[in-house]
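Entry type: protein chain
Record version: 2
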Amino acid sequence: MLLSVDDVRDFLKKLGFDEGSVNELIEQIEYFEKEAPQRDDIVRDYLREECIETIVEEIVEEILKMNKESIRLLDVAAGSGFFTERIKRKLEERGVKADVYALDITPSMLRRLDEKGITPIWGVAEKIRESIEIANEHCGINAPREFDVVLSTLAFHHFLNPEEVLKSMKSVLTENGKVIIIDVLKHEHEEFKETLKDIHLGFSLEEIKEMGSKIFKKVEARYMDVYCEVGDIIIGLYKAVFA
């Protein structure tokens, strides 16, 4: 899937984003375009191997609770597929057939996903359903309109409008499906907005629960015993599940 910045800009306008939001998203894309070749190594630098394994296991265990032999899974803002690939493999090791798709806004990340055998979808987290329609029409794929599991790992703090993202995730969720989010807890490191292009400085459990309860009937959120390391700064993580 080869998309130029001009293609992306056109698609963003089709999705209804105003000029200011388009420019902000393009700035994020340009940042992650530079990261794409080293993205897997960057994730490893942020997280110790045991933290990576814990995150994957937490997501897989949450999916196994659904007692399904096969699932359709969408990873939103999947990046290079670092976690997507591991989750798919672990599910299949546990006897669950996983039909996995990954949505991302950065063209180079989509190429990395394709190289890993994961079906890439160009799109924006705030408008997943519309993004799938555009990707199916313009990019020659046939992605489903609904998924049993929608997940996002270490990306929620990058979204322009997190509450709209949760609504967007629900719009492509099957009746008994669930949304799983693992992301950074609220912190005070304002410099990350510039150095890492973070939009938000994480979220507290209370903020996540309040946001989710407006949209979902069932909301769970808890601290995880894992963390990210950015230089000498340590940031905790949380897991939230919505159904």
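Comment: Strands lie at 70-76, 97-104, 119-122, 147-153, 173-184, 219-230, 233-242.
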